[in-house]
Specification:
Radius of gyration: 15 Å
Shape: globular
Largest sheet: 4 strands, antiparallel
Structural class: alpha+beta
Number of helices: 4
Helix content: 25-40%
Order of helices and strands: EEEEEHEEHHEEH
Strand content: 25-35%
């Protein structure tokens, strides 16, 4: 992924089938996509310029009721941030028959466990560059990804010392 001066999209495929797309432009785009083992859920960490969005694209129709999980969820702790993360995610993920929703506590824990056990080099290999000039390439790192999904996240843009 190379930041574009034009508006565009990043298509996500499983095999030959496109399952969803994510908006991309110069300042917005996906940083990390984690496919859950069931092959029906995909966690997305997305830089939306003024907010870091963390959401799940869920292709299992039996879990469609989780689309409103932001109403009663504990993560993130701020109701306003939780509401806006859920709303903004539907603006950047599209072209899917699945549900776009906030991750459940169990999904977040699985992701935290996976990131904690994965080397920085492996995360870099599987993440999308958020800047790519050939000689200079920037990727999300483990500490940033873990900060984005921290249990005590309260802010739109989590920063070290200010989750």
């Amino acid at each position: 992924m190379i930041p574009s001066l034009r508006d565009g999209k990043v298509d996500v495929f499983v095999g030959e089938e496109k399952i969803f797309s994510l908006w991309e432009d110069f300042s917005d785009g996906p940083r990390f996509i984690y496919p859950f083992a069931d092959g029906y859920r995909f966690f997305c960490d997305y830089n939306n310029d003024t907010v870091i969005l963390d959401f799940v694209v869920d292709l299992n129709p039996s879990r469609a009721n989780l689309a409103t999980n932001w109403l009663t969820a504990n993560w993130p702790g701020s109701y306003e941030v939780r509401r806006d993360l859920a709303r903004f995610a539907t603006n950047v993920a599209f072209d899917t028959t699945g549900t776009i929703r906030l991750p459940t506590d169990e999904e977040l824990q699985e992701l935290r466990d996976r990131l904690s056990r994965t080397s920085d080099a492996e995360i870099k290999k599987t993440s999308l560059p958020n800047i790519d000039f050939g000689f200079l390439r920037g990727n999300a790192d483990r500490s940033r990804l873990l900060l984005d999904i921290a249990t005590n996240r309260q802010n739109y843009w989590p920063l070290p010392g200010r989750p």
